[in-house]
């Protein structure tokens, strides 16, 4: 029976990839809420709008599904970026491209051995990206054309956090699968600070919520398969 469940999981993932395409673009074509009120796949894997995925015990075991609680914990924000040096006089300047939505976050903190001097929003309306221009304070100074590491770390503070493995980053946003009774419901979230192992959740979860930490992508593929026509609707 265990061998059957493992084969079922592999077949389910393969069908999802064939039926919906590979990579981030697939997330954009996922069914809208209510498009399939309920869908059932082979081996007792079902999906219901508003409730999420339901997996039978054999499939959960074959997947090695793991969960954890969202809880408050001290978290320091550790960020590393790569900047391109474009000027050396009268000061060493470098630029780094970041998502427009993260600009306010970078304005709150100071980079190690670098200072934010201006923000170029020229391409933001078209690309949703902005360039941060920083003055570097390093000895010896880097040369024009070099790429340098930028990093900063904040002091730890208590925030609502989950393991980083719980995140599903898709083209349409960031999601987490939340345990919803016997179902697993894909839920949009907003994130802030990120450490090596944990990420702060600023919206979408409450302390005590139980979330899936593995295997998130397999659940996503199963949902895509069912909402994109792999099962039959009721």
Explain how this protein is built.
- This protein has 234 residues and is α+β, with helices and mostly antiparallel strands.
- 23% of the residues lie in helices and 42% in strands.
- The protein contains six helices and 18 strands.
- The chain has helices at 2-20, 25-28, 57-63, 103-107, 124-127, 216-230, and strands at 38-40, 46-48, 52-54, 66-69, 71-75, 78-87, 93-99, 114-120, 129-136, 147-153, 157-163, 168-170, 173-180, 183-188, 190-194, 198-203, 210-214, 232-233.
- A five-stranded antiparallel sheet has the order 8-9-7-6-10.
- A hairpin with a 2-residue loop joins strand 12 (168-170) and strand 13 (173-180).
- Helix 1 (2-20) packs across helix 6.
- Mean pLDDT is 81; it is low at 1-36 and 230-234.
Protein topology:
Layout: H1 2-20, H2 25-28, E1 38-40, E2 46-48, E3 52-54, H3 57-63, E4 66-69, E5 71-75, E6 78-87, E7 93-99, H4 103-107, E8 114-120, H5 124-127, E9 129-136, E10 147-153, E11 157-163, E12 168-170, E13 173-180, E14 183-188, E15 190-194, E16 198-203, E17 210-214, H6 216-230, E18 232-233
Antiparallel strand pairs: 1-2, 1-18, 2-3, 4-17, 5-11, 6-7, 6-10, 7-9, 8-9, 11-16, 12-13, 13-14, 15-16
Helix pairs in contact: 1-3, 1-6
